[in-house]
Amino acid sequence: MKIAILTISDRSARGEREDASGPILVAMVKQQGWRIAKTAIIADDQQGIEDTLIRWVDWDSVDVILTTGGTGFSPRDQAPEATRKVVDRLAPGIVQAMRNESLKKTPHAMLSRAEAGIRKSTLIINLPGSPRAARENFEVVLHTLPHAVKLLHGDPDAEKGHHPPKRREEA
Fold first, then answer.
1. pLDDT at residue 160, as a whole number
2. In sequence order, what are the residues at sequence separation of 6 or more whose Cβ sits closer than 8 angstroms to the Cβ of residue 9?
3. Which domains does the chain have, with CATH numbers?
């Protein structure tokens, strides 16, 4: 799988703060044996986020884009709006699973406005900007990503294992 990681942070984009979440996600992706296709740090600007997501999907053909940052309540947090604008279909179950797990650790998880969705055959997932929260949320979904990518690419083997085998009297 080809994974792209987009850090969305005004301060990191200006060089005022080191990006801590992006490198954690890069390490986790590599640990799975997947390829890092792209990484970038950009300001929390809706148009800039949209442009980057569109370019990475339409021109660079990545399988999954993980964004980190820009999902909270701050007026500058624009990742969810940008993601909703560029996706063809939302994937609410992914966000629901991440939020459910996060709520077991902190009530602040209910303040996440993260989105997940599909543009063409690329899955885009918003993760929090905190290094710990980014890692924990990615851990929730990482084992489903290979299957999700197979489904998005129309892999005929993707549906295997979805249904239990029929009993003999049903066959």
1. 77
2. 17, 19, 41, 43, 44, 69, 70, 129
3. 2-152 (3.40.980.10)
